[in-house]
Amino acid sequence: MMLAGFAPVLSTACGDASAGTIDEDAVLGEILAFDQGGFTKVNAAPVPSAHVAARVDIWVTAASAALYLQIDPPDYSTPVAFPEGATIVKRHFADEAATMVDGFTVMHKGPAGYAPAANDWWWARVNEDGSIAVSGDGGGETQLCVDCHAPASGTDLVLGVDPADHAP
Ligand code: HEC
Questions:
Q1: Does pTM top 0.85 for this prediction?
Q2: Does some domain include residue 19?
Q3: How many angstroms separate the CA atoms of 44 and 66, rounded?
Q4: Could you tell me the distance, in angstroms and rounded to a whole number, from the CA of residue 108 to the centre of ligand 1?
Q5: Residue 130 belongs to domain spanning
Q6: Grouped pLDDT means (10 residues each) for the chain, 168 residues
Q7: Does the beta carbon of 145 lie inside 6 Å of ligand 1?
């Protein structure tokens, strides 16, 4: 569900010839530089995950980290909506000690109208070598991402991290 108050932000892409598309190479470059300063890690110690990963860290575009930290799972009743360009990178670890890195899952907010059924998020699973395993607009192979994130419809399909696990 999109909030009326955020419409002016999201409508900036209207009239742009490139509206409605994602530059996957550009986003991939951003993702692979997740630990180079543009992102804020929102959790403290690596957390257990519903994803196929023993532990995860979650990194959010610095400008949107405060928005992410407003989410208080499993209560999604206080609305949160992310701006176009926001990227959330989940760093997967294969072991509970979080020493074996195992790629990423990603949500990147596209322009208004990019993916109306998926709140305009681009969804991807990225391999450790930087290649894209799966990507899309919430249809096809990325439908399962949206389905599982659906409980967070009030917070822009972003499920969040328990406040007890937030970075200090
Ligand atoms: C089995 C249900 C499930 C599936 C399938 C799933 N997710 Fe998630 N996802 C979660 C949960 C629950 C969280 C919250 C933190 C956690 O448990 O890791 C989450 C968190 C995330 C986050 C961090 C942002 C947030 O919501 O807090 C990203 C990014 C993400 N998922 C991407 C994806 C992508 C991309 C796919 C598909 C390739 C996907 N997820 C499929 C359940 C799922």
A1: yes
A2: no
A3: 15
A4: 13
A5: 4-10+24-165
A6: 43 47 96 97 96 95 98 97 98 97 98 96 97 97 98 98 96
A7: yes
